[in-house]
Amino acid sequence: MKNRNSMKTVFGLAASLLAAVSASADVTLSKIFDDHMVLQRDIPVAVYGKAAPGEKVTVAFAGQTQAASADKEGAWCVKLDAMKVCTDSAAMTVTGKNTLTLKDVVVGDVWICSGQSNMDFTPGAYQSPLDPKPYDEKDFDVPLLRQFHLVNEPSMRPESDVIVNRGNGTSEESAAWLPCKPTTGNRFTAVGLYFGRKLQLETGVPIGLIKTAWNGTRIEPWISPAGLASVKELPPVAGLPAEYKSDGGYPSTWHCLYNGKIQPITRYGIKGAIWYQGESNGDEGETYYQKLRALIGGWRAAWGEGDFPFYIVQLAGRFSSTYTPAGQDPAGGDGWAKIRMAQFKALNIPHTGMAVTMDLADVRDPGDIHPKNKRDAGERLALWALAKDYGKENLVYSGPLYKEMKIEGDKIRIAFDSAGSSLTVATKKGFAPVVKEPQGKLKHFAIAGDDKKWVWANADIVGTTVVVSSPEVPKPVAVRYAYTMSGDDCNLYNSEGLPASPFRTDDW
């Protein structure tokens, strides 16, 4: 009996070993490949996973079949030829010793959606007593808009695959790639949803969103080592810990979010990225600009697809709170004033854009750093993409952006890019449309002379310029607009309803 039991044990172990060997020989895909996915158009598309070493893997999709063999580590990668937009649902078949079939695959444009909480939060997170139901679920009926939610943890080493956030419910609602429907839209990044929704409905191109964000994070963990090394103005980082450190529960160690939440997707073809972050770096100015250079350059180098578009959200206004009180000093510079200047300056990086959101803070909820209105933020980002990437000509895609100043006696004339058809005084409250006030007076302009003493100024719209003056400053040399934490009285818009970015003409 003892020998018989020993033999059973031996046979059991052998069977387990054979099962393990058989399982290891099965072809698998990176978890980013799943039903309902969006593949990037117009570039060769990498499809990749694991198999037995030397195993031949064949991928068939959209009329083409490509093959490759797994290397000695079992990794394989097949390149599909560049494809045009395809809105018709198609199946992808991956064949080795086993066969995998992915359903409802489309070809369009894929956008990374990254940053901190203002990118992470879903539409449902913004329902409050102030606006019990600011979003209409009918807005979410856009099945050719899909989201992949990557939930990887921070890491001190580059990760190779992704972790998927699957929901509960029907097979479609729990897929890794989630089509946008009335029952699923509340699980999307709110900014990304309205960005992608506008692109999809106006172009007909399927839009994929890869949501990879983390609440409360600084920019440093998102920067790649190569990105940091490429910006000489930033000192190198030495002595990184084996495990990432956190600041108040938020990952703070350089590169740890890049390693965990960006590196694993760098082989997946994309169109570009949108970025909403900065509150956690809110006391910075020029250094944040240099970090944006490192972030953008590092990501672009990792994908190796040239200078893909990178669009950021400039931080919204914020009213008084214990976190950072808003100032009423005409000199400004309080709160997030300087970091907005860094974000504005980042427009000199090729193929970047910036959605101004100074008017989206809610004065009714002064302590909240999360503007409820993510619809306008996302749609303003989409305007940049429509104009720059989708061929929408003659589209006014930005509010007025400071271009240059000219001293004219006791006045200074300010000229703008993106002035649109004209400049106007206007206001915006919550989710309501912008309201023009043709007889209104411009607010929050300040002017200074050589003594560098700032006073509140008179500002008048003249054509597509603003003329600024004060009887207290007979020889002006510089102007500032909305250079402050709060934005309740910033009311310069173009006639297309887009707000002017805060600006300063000096470098004092």
Task: Describe the protein in words.
The protein is of the alpha+beta class. The chain has three domains: 26-105, Immunoglobulins (Immunoglobulin-like), CATH 2.60.40.10; 107-389, SGNH hydrolase (Rossmann fold, 3-Layer(aba) Sandwich), CATH 3.40.50.1110; 401-504, no CATH class. The chain has helices at 2-25, 117-120, 190-203, 225-229, 256-262, 286-303, 337-345, 374-389; strands at residues 28-29, 38-40, 45-50, 56-61, 64-69, 75-80, 86-95, 99-115, 142-149, 177-180, 207-213, 246-247, 250-251, 272-276, 310-313, 352-355, 401-408, 411-417, 423-427, 435-436, 445-448, 454-456, 458-462, 465-469, 478-481, 492-494, 503-504. The strands form six sheets. Strands 2, 4, 5, 7, 8, 9, 10, 11, 14, 15 and 16 form an eleven-stranded mixed β-sheet that branches. The termini are far apart.
